[in-house]
Amino acid sequence: MSRDPTLNGMLYFEAVARHGGVSKAAEELGVSASAVSQQIKLLEQQLGVRLFFREKRQFRLTADGERLFHSTSAAFRMIRDARQLVARQRERRQLILRVSPSFAVRWLGPRLARFVQQHPSWDLHVDATPDPSDFDREVVDLDVRYGAGDWSGLYVEHVLDDYVLPLCSPAYLETLKAAAGDPTDRIRHARLIDSVKALYRWDAWLEHVGISPVADSARLRFDRSSMALQLAARGVGVVLESVTLAYDEIAAGTLVPVSTTFDVERFPAYWIMGPSRNQSRRIVQIFCTWLREECAQQEAASQAVIARLGCHVRQIATPTPIAGGAVAVPALSGS
After folding, report:
1. Distances, alpha carbon 55 to alpha carbons 20, 64, 129, 245, in Å
2. Where in the chain are the domains?
3. Which of 62, 139, 198, 257 has its CA at 20 to 30 Å from residue 177's CA atom?
4. pTM above 0.85, yes or no
């Protein structure tokens, strides 16, 4: 019979020696007590020595058993420590991120390639959902959320403003100009495309600029800004939407302002939020630093394209939803 002991035999021996008996060792290893006993018997046969004195249900090491236990316990301790170190390192490299859907698809997604290229060994799980995370019940490290920033009991940091104005395709704008010269009349003639999850929607904007909508005018409503913007870019109507989300179309000229006489409404809209304890994780800190840098670049780009269009920016407080799906929009100042 071969005298080379199996790894299982050494593992079972170390557990029995450490616990002083078969039952607890079997429980720890997740096997039957008879399987442990058979492995110990086989190991003694392979080594040609007796490793334990059997005294009722207690196992006491012989001198040879003591020598073997000293070596195996040190070896398995090193293996366990190495396994835990690898697990901790993997945990430190894993980021579970939740993001508002349209922001994830239109803004964050195209930029994540840069983050992944900088950190190729990190696991990244992105979940684009409309509802904020329940950090007490869900395993989420960080939420990048569109909203009013009113999440109590959590770490909340504003990272990006929104700039909102009426947008349409150049061809649709020509149609509106042919129908009406006055910008407010153009809006009355327009088919309005509504992003129903947006903080600042048509009803609040129309009230602010003093436009009474045509009673029987058809309106399109979508629960994703990405869908509303696609329809507007294809000449279906006018969307009241975000420069942040529509930046590529605005920069390319496929979406244009209905009129530069209308203010661009600016307000805090995008936030980092999550449990304060998660902010101590290195990968969370690194991701947040990267996100702040990307958001700062977006702020500069948004302001530059708005200036190029010749629009005026009006600073307002973040709109807050009220009953019936409307919003309250307190004005702050022009800027």
Report:
1. 11, 17, 62, 75
2. 7-92, 94-157, 159-269+290-334
3. 198
4. no
